[in-house]
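Q: Joint fold for the lines below.
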Amino acid sequence: MATTILAPREHYLNESYGIKSWLFTTDHKRIALLYLVSITTMFFVGGIFALLIRLELLTPPGDLVQAETYNKLFSMHGITMVWFFLIPSIPTVLGNFLIPMMIVAKDLAFPRLNLTSWYLFDLSALFLLWTILNGGVDTGWTFYTPYSSIFSNTNVMTAVLAILINGFSSILTGMNFIVTIHRMRAPGMTWFRLPLFVWTHYATSLILVLATPVLALTLTLVGIERVFRIGLFDPALGGDPLLFQHLFWFYSHPAVYIMILPAMGVVSELVTCFSRQEIYGYKFVAFASLGIAFYSFLVWGHHMFVAGQSAYAAMIFSFLSYFVAIPSAVKVFNWTATLYKGSVSYQTPMLYALGFIGLFVIGGLTGLFVAALGVDVHVTDTYFVIAHFHYIMVGGSVMGYLGGLHYWWPKISGRLYPEGWAKLSALIVFLGFNLTFFPQFILGYLGMPRRYYAYPEEFQVLNVLSSAGASILGVGYILPLVYLIWSMRYGRAAGPNPWPATGLEWQMPSPPPRDNFAITPVVTEPPYQYPRMKSQDGETITAEEQPA
Amino acid sequence: MNGVGTAADERSTVSQRSSVLEHHFRDLEQQRGASTLGMWIFLATEVMFFGVLFLGYTAYRVVYHESFAEGSHHLKLLLGSINTVVLLSSSLTMALAVHAAQLGRSKALVSFLLMTMLLGVAFLGIKALEYYYEYEERLVPGLNFAYSGSNAGHVELFFILYFFMTGLHAFHLTVGIGLVAVIAFLAWRGRYTAEYHTPVELTGLYWHFVDVIWVFLFPLLYLIDRYR
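A: Joint structure:
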C-alpha cells in the first residue's frame, strides 16, 4: 500500500475540539460516532443479562436466581437488545455515516433532526437504565396484556416510556433516510446506481416509518390501561388481549426485518469487494429488499398460531410466511453466485460476511419450520424458537454489523485495525455463537420450554454446552472493543482506500472532510465495477494483493 | 472505479443561495422537495398511529355493534355537526392562506392564518363543552363512569375509544394551532415571499390532515345507526 506522509489534514474528527463540538454537532459522521458509543454501551448492558441467564441455566435447579429475578433477566435482555442495540445498530452507525457519502451528499436531508433522534435515543436509554436500576420489568420483551397492563408489579411504565421515546427516535431516523435517498442524490446517481447498502436502508426506513407508530400507540394504550384503569384490552369489559397481540406483532414482525435488512446491505458490499466481482443480479437483490419489506407486514399472525386466532387466519399467515423465504433466498443465491469464479480473499470483513450467509441460511430455514403450522404447535415457546431467532439476530444482524464495522473502520477512524487479532476474534465469534445456539435447537425440539429458570436434569449437557459457548462468544465481542479502540491511536494510517473498493465513500480521504466531497462529482457508472486484474502468471488478483 | 466528474452547475447555484438555503442543499428547489417529502412521510406515520385506534374501533364495533350504537346515541350530534362545519371551514381558510402565500400577499396570508387559528380554537371550545356534558352524564371512563344496562362493559369500550380518538385528535389540533400561530407571526414579520413559503405549505398539509382525521371520526363515532 502506498503511504505518503502528509501535513495534518483537516477532517471531520479534527475540524473542531471539545465536548460542545460533539454534543451540538449536526455532522452525520459525528452523530454516527455518538450513536456508536450509545449502542455499544447498551449492547454490553444487554450482554450482562445474557451472561446471567446462561449462568443460571448451567445447572438444572434455580440456584443463582429464583423465578422472579429470572423473569426480569430475560425481559431486560430482550428489551435492551431488540430496541437499544439490534434495531438502531447498523442504520444509526453505519447508515448514518455512509448513506450521504454513498449518494454524494454533504449530509442527511435533516441534520438537526438527526441529532434530535440521537438525543431521544439517549433519553430512552436513560429511562431503560432507570427501569433496570429500580428493579427491572418482568413482562418479557413482548408486554403481553393483561399481565403487563393489570397484574405485573414491576416497572412496566418506565420501560414502556423508554420504548415509546426510542420509537420516536427510530421514526425520525427512518424519515431522514427516506428523504435523503429520494432528494439528496448527486447528479447521475440514479436509483440503479445506488449501492445495495442504500437500497436495504431504504427498505428498512420504510418499515421504521410505517410500523413503529403502531407500536407507539399500542404501548400508549397499555400505559393508559395500567395507570388510569381504562382498559381497551381488558377482558372484564369485553376487551380482547388478542387485539394487543395483533398490534404488537404487526410492529414486531417487521421489526425483525429492520434488524436483518441493513445487515444484508452490508453483506452485499462485502461480498462484492472481497471477491472482486460485480454483484450477481443487482436488480433482483435491490427489489428483494423491497419485497422483504412488503411481505414483512403480512405475516405477523405466525406469532399467534397457538394464541387462539382462527384456524383459517393461521393457515393464511402460515402460507404468507413462506413467501418471505423467496426474496431472502434470492439474496443468498445471488451472494453465492457473486462468489462464483471470483477472486475471494478472506480478510476479517469477509469472514463475517461468509459467517452471516451460513448462519442466516440456518436461521432462515428453521424459520420455515416454525412458519409451518403443525411443526410450530410442537415447538412454540421452546428453545427451538429461541435458537431460530438468535441465528437471525445474532448470527445475522450482529455478524453483519461487526463485518461492516471492520470494513468501514479505516474510513471512520482513518486507521487500520490489527488484522490478525480481528481474524481471530471473527473465528471466536463464529465458534462461540454456534456452540451457544445450536444446542438450543436440540433442547427445543426435545421440549425444553423458553422463559424457565429451572429444567429437568436430562437437559443439562446441552445447557452446559450452550453456556460454555456464550462465554466464548463474550470473549469474541470484547476483543474487537479492545483492539478497535487501540487502533484509533496505534493503528497504521489507512489511506483513502485500503481494500481497495469501488464505492464512492472510498474516493475521499480517510477520515473524510466535514462536507464529504469538496466538489459534487457526477456519477456515470453503476456500483461494483471491479476491474478483473490479472497478474503476470494469469491469476486473478485478490483484494489482499491488489495495489491501492 | 466509479466514474466521477465535476458538476458544471456547482458554481452557478451559488448565486441562488440566500439566507433561507441551508448549506447542505444544492438549491432551494432541492430544499423544498426534501421538506415536502419529509412532511408527507410524517403524515404517513400519523396515519399508522391513528390506524391502531381505527382498527381497534372496527374490531370492537363488529363484535359489539348494538352497544356501540347505544353509546353513540349519547353523543351530542348537534354540537358534533357544528364542529364538523367549523373544522371544514378552517381547512378552507388554510387553503386560502397557502394560496395567498403563493401569490406573495402577506397581509391576506396573515389574516387567513388568524381566521384558521380562530376556527381551530372554536372547535376545541365546542369539543370541551361536549366533554363537559359527557362528564355530567357520567360517561367518562376512568374518571366518572356509571352506566346501567346489560352491556355496560361494551359501552365503556365505546367511550374509551371515543375519548381516546377525539382526545388524540384534539391534541393534534392544539399542536396545529401552535404551528399556525408561529407561521402567522413569521408571516407578519415578512418572512415569506412568493418564492419561499414552504413552511406555510407544510403547516397547511398538517392542518388538512388533522381535518381529514375528523372527517373519519365524526361519522364513525356520532352516526352509528342514527336512521333507526
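Q: Anything notable?
A: Residues 25 and 34 of chain B are 9 Å apart (CA to CA). Helices of chain B lie at 28-63, 65-72, 77-103, 106-136, 152-188, 198-222.
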